[in-house]
Amino acid sequence: MSPRLHSSGLMVLATGLLMLTLTACGQSEAPGCGGLDVSQPWVRAAPAGADVMGAYFTLANDGDTRVTVNGVASSQFERAEMHQTVVNDDGQASMQPLDEVAIAAGEKVEFKSGGRHVMLFSPSQAYKAGDQVEVILACGSQQAELPVAAVVRAGAPGASSRQSSSGESATQEGQADAAGDTAESE
User: Cα–Cα distance between 134 and 136 in angstroms, integer?
Assistant: First the structure.
């Protein structure tokens, strides 16, 4: 085997092992993250030229004590922030930054479109459906890191292309939600 082919094979193997490790990191091994489990992590694909993407997942605290997520980051984006969508009395939606999210023992917290979510700003490259993005949650006073591999998707997991009463497909509705998340952040 040539050294070049051997090196390429090792690089592919190393990349595969890294992604397997990140995928397995959905369950916390970090002391400050307690029994935190991250399920269904995904990032909504953005339209061409967009500089903001949204990340969504469910946090479950399988431990015996409260876990506080007090930061989020990604090496693939310039910055990341936790946000909460808030609707005022006039029906106008806006986003408010979240400094922390506490998950009581035995409880679950959803990060979803129209609610809590993570905004990812200024991607290092264009991401398309099927790509993987690393999102790192920081927990507790020691800022323990919990890396999570999220898959880029055109629509929410499990979304079909069924027609809604307005005639838009579910996928089109999901893209509109992403555009709304993006527009609110500007």
Answer: 6
pLDDT digits (tens, 9 = 90+) for 6-50: 444 433 333 343 344 344 445 545 667 989 999 999 999 999 889
- Kindly report the CA angle at 119 between 41 and 136, in degrees rounded to 5? 50
Structural domains in the chain (count)? 1
What are the tens digits of pLDDT across the range 74-110?
Answer: 999 999 999 999 999 999 999 999 999 999 999 999 9
Task: Look at residue 53 and tell me if it is in a domain.
Answer: yes
Domain span holding position 80: 26-185
Residue 149 maps to a domain: yes
Alpha carbon 11 to chain centroid, angstroms: 26
Cα separation, 53 vs 43, whole angstroms: 7
Which pLDDT does position 38 carry in this prediction? 97
- Burial class for 34, CB neighbours closer than 10 Å (0-12, 13-18, 19+): buried
Question: What is the CATH number for 125?
Answer: 2.60.40.1890
Asked if the structure places residue 21 within a domain, the reply is: no
In a 10 Å sphere around its CB, with 0-12 CB exposed, 13-18 middle and 19+ buried, how is residue 83 labelled?
A: buried
Q: Is residue 42 part of a domain?
A: yes
Q: Which run of H or E residues covers position 5?
A: helix 3-24
In 3-state terms, what secondary structure has residue 166?
A: coil
Hey, what are 48's tokens?
A: 């061409």
